[in-house]
Write a structure and sequence with these properties.
Largest sheet: 7 strands, mixed
Radius of gyration: 26 Å
Strand order of the largest sheet: 1-9-16-15-12-14-13
Number of strands: 29
Number of helices: 25
Structural class: alpha/beta
CATH architecture of the largest domain: 3-Layer(aba) Sandwich
Strand content: 15-25%
Low-confidence stretches: none
């Protein structure tokens, strides 16, 4: 596509008022190729040749050479760099030359597994495998076909949920696979982070333990988007040493990456035009110019909101255009998702609005443009999303629209900190006591636990086994731990994508049908009485929430607003883990108990984001233990704020909001993965304090990362506050949309003074 002509067209529109904050020209890159150390079997070589996949890029050749030496390999290269061949070639070589060998592929989503099956069949069937030998196995696999998969399949494509729930607890039925397992492939390994990643790390350890029982010792091949710690991440996920391949040899057609900042409409309060409105306008311009594009949004709700905005805009241009776009997100039925993927791949659709469900490597053909509505929470994710356009050698276009929050606005003012940054660390914590304990119980159900299982589950496992014994869930006999008779199929009670393992159901009261399910740990933030819940472009009003049966009852409505919850949080220190001196201050890391209450909600106009109403709520508090960092404020800084007659409590509150918003710059996490509390006098310390905590029970390593980098966090937070053009503080620096205290008190100048004092 002619990117400069399209950008010129945009800047000539009446609605344009200087939104282009920065254009990064990413040059074309030539391919670097390399040879394998020894030739491939002729049949495999022939298939690769026929599909134009040879010569191999340098990183593909290196990964395959290392795998053939028997090493565990982690491949961390850019989006669309041909990573799948790094595992498909070694696996297909084993399948065609070792008649008994099997492989297991794990993908984070069902859609990815389906997509990979399609490409394996196109590439290698029927020359290298027979029908039924390569297949998917997931929740959608019909019951009658499952026995056939166990009996015949040699390459099984599944997801960690199915491995945890369906395969490991029934390992006797899967003994053929486990005995012959030669390779285990984990694709999109950067998505296995936080709670989900910590669960997956424990599931992999359970698998390795059962492989040992059946006499196999599989090799691991992991693929990931570019992250800062690929070797460490692979080692933490699997528990074994890895060789890293990260020297990308793939070609790239060049890209214009545009930072698009919505214009300010109220300069005193630094209020900007709605990013959602900007995304809809850009998306509509792309689709009406027949540019195949994908617009990413961060939440399920926003998928529908932006889809509806854009549909209306397109209808004004041409009545046939609204049919050319569709929304796509998790929570849809599998057949609905397959249909949308097919239509986008086949060119019937020109554009799709998606949540990150489409961020991963699904092949949806060649897209020319991507729009990111807000920074997606990590630089790795941003590149992954932007990389969905420009997979061919042609030039492509990506837009990052800045939201009204500190991190997005920091990037709009400092694009170099985005383009020059060597990505973030992916964090997992397989020792999280809630997660480890749950998987030890599952492991005991699969095969009684012994002292030698520390080899798989680490030194923390001994204490957790003792805890399970104390709870009466494990019983010891002759040096082994067995599940108590009351324990039945423990895997069923554990949702590996959450720490709670429970779901709420949303029922459509107009016909009594199940709309969808939502995880219990976040349910109260989305389906409170009065909430507007969006499903496939339709709004539903939650009329009743039955906490006992975990059910929300909602009716279809037509409204012009959406809802956002407001929360209040308290925190109690349980145990100090580490502390250190940093400049003039003491910084602490410890175990804490957090209590969060949803106290009300705001109604916000869909197009303008304007608050059009507020309602109080009375919902039960949610309590959970986690890990937090906190720090003291030097006494002379407190005096300085006092002398300047600024609001000290408002300064603490403002600094806390801004620091929480900036922390995801250093850890691969989302703004919603962290929370904070600030107070002029905390009852546990007797001092003014700012706390930043991990929003997942037990913690996943985010607070530890903040503790290690606290000085950088202070510096960047100060920069974000100082450079914001507003006078009193605004959503781009110190206000938080979820603040249960209505962003009161807040004092921007005091926050600046406190941070300067810390540094």
């Amino acid at each position: 596509m002619d990117t400069s002509a399209f950008l010129h067209h945009l800047s000539a529109q009446t609605g344009y008022s200087g939104q282009i904050a920065h254009i990064e020209h990413i040059p074309r890159r030539q391919a670097r190729c390399a040879q394998l150390d020894r030739a491939l079997p002729a049949s495999l070589q022939g298939r690769l040749d026929e599909h134009g996949l040879l010569p191999l890029y340098s990183h593909q050749a290196e990964a395959i050479n290392r795998a053939r030496e028997g090493r565990n390999v982690m491949v961390a290269t850019s989006s669309a760099s041909g990573k799948t061949l790094c595992y498909n070639i070694p696996v297909m070589e084993a399948v065609s030359t070792e008649p008994r060998s099997c492989a297991l592929y794990l993908f984070p989503t069902k859609a990815l597994a389906q997509d990979q099956l399609r490409s394996l069949k196109e590439l290698f069937y029927p020359q290298l495998f027979q029908i039924g030998e390569v297949t998917t196995f997931d929740g959608d696999t019909p019951q009658p076909e499952r026995a056939e998969v166990r009996k015949r399949a040699r390459v099984i494509l599944t997801n960690p949920d199915m491995l945890h729930l369906g395969i490991l607890p029934n390992h006797q039925q899967w003994s053929r696979l486990l005995r012959r397992l030669r390779y285990l492939v984990l694709d999109e390994a950067h998505t296995y982070r936080g709670v989900f990643g910590s669960h997956v790390a424990c599931v992999i350890r359970r698998l390795r333990r059962l492989c040992q029982l059946y006499g196999s010792n599989p090799q691991f091949i992991l693929c990931s988007a570019t992250i800062a710690n690929p070797g460490e991440h692979a080692q933490k996920l699997v528990g074994l040493p890895f060789t890293v391949v990260d020297n990308d040899g793939s070609p790239h057609g060049g890209k214009e990456f545009v930072f698009w900042n919505p214009p300010i409409i109220d300069s005193a309060r630094s209020v900007r035009r709605s990013a959602n409105g900007e995304a809809a306008s850009l998306f509509a311009e792309l689709v009406s110019s027949n540019i195949r594009s994908l617009t990413f949004v961060r939440t399920r709700q926003l998928t529908e909101v932006i889809y509806n905005y854009t549909r209306r805009k397109l209808a004004e241009i041409n009545s046939a255009l609204p049919k050319k776009i569709k929304p796509y997100r998790a929570g849809y039925l599998p057949e609905e998702r397959r249909k949308i993927e097919k239509e986008l791949f086949g060119g019937e659709l020109t554009g799709v609005v998606a949540t990150t469900a489409l961020e991963l490597g699904i092949d949806i053909g060649d897209l020319e443009a991507t729009v990111l509505t807000g920074y997606p929470g990590s630089i790795a994710s941003a590149w992954q999303q932007a990389g969905r356009s420009g997979r061919s050698q042609d030039k492509s276009l990506s837009f990052l629209i800045g939201l009204d929050n500190p991190l997005d606005q920091y990037f709009m003012r400092h694009p170099d900190s985005f383009f020059g940054k060597s990505f973030e660390n992916a964090l997992v914590n397989p020792d999280n006591p809630y997660i480890l304990r749950a998987h030890l119980l599952c492991a005991a159900w699969e095969l009684p636990l012994g002292a030698d299982d520390e080899e798989f589950f680490g030194p923390a496992s001994a204490g957790e086994i003792a805890g399970l014994e104390e709870q009466g869930l494990l019983r010891q006999r002759q040096g082994k731990w067995y599940p108590a008779p009351s324990v039945i199929y423990p895997a069923q009670g554990i949702n590996i994508r959450s720490t709670s393992g429970e779901n709420f159901a949303i029922i459509d009261t107009s016909n009594g049908s199940l709309l969808e399910t939502i995880e219990a740990s976040v349910a109260l933030f989305f389906i409170f009485p009065g909430a507007i819940y969006l499903h496939q472009g339709e709004s539903y009003l939650v009329e009743e929430l039955d906490l006992h049966s975990r059910t929300a009852f909602a009716k279809p409505v037509t409204v012009n607003y959406y809802t956002q919850d407001k929360e209040i949080t308290d925190l109690h220190i349980l145990k100090l883990l580490r502390d250190k001196t940093c400049r003039q201050s003491r910084v602490y890391l410890g175990e804490v108990e957090v209590t969060t209450r949803v106290v009300g909600f705001k109604k916000k106009a869909q197009f303008t984001e304007e608050v059009i109403g507020e309602e109080p709520l009375d919902l039960p508090p949610q309590r959970f233990p986690t890990v937090a960092l906190w720090f003291d404020l030097p006494p002379e800084v407190v005096k300085r704020v006092d002398r300047a007659q600024l609001d000290f409590a408002g300064g603490l509150h403002a600094a806390e909001h801004a620091a929480i918003a900036i922390l995801p710059l250093f850890a691969l996490c989302d703004r919603n993965d962290i929370g904070g509390v600030s107070t002029p006098l905390h009852p546990d310390t007797g001092r003014p304090q700012i706390f930043i905590y991990d929003a997942h029970p037990g913690g996943v390593g985010i607070a530890e990362r903040g503790f290690d980098l606290v000085e950088q966090l202070w510096q960047t937070t100060l920069k974000a506050i100082k450079e914001c053009p507003c006078e009193e503080g605004c959503p781009s620096c110190v206000q938080s949309p979820k603040c249960g205290n209505n962003n009161k008190p807040l004092d921007k100048k005091a926050a600046q003074m406190l941070l300067e004092g810390l540094l």
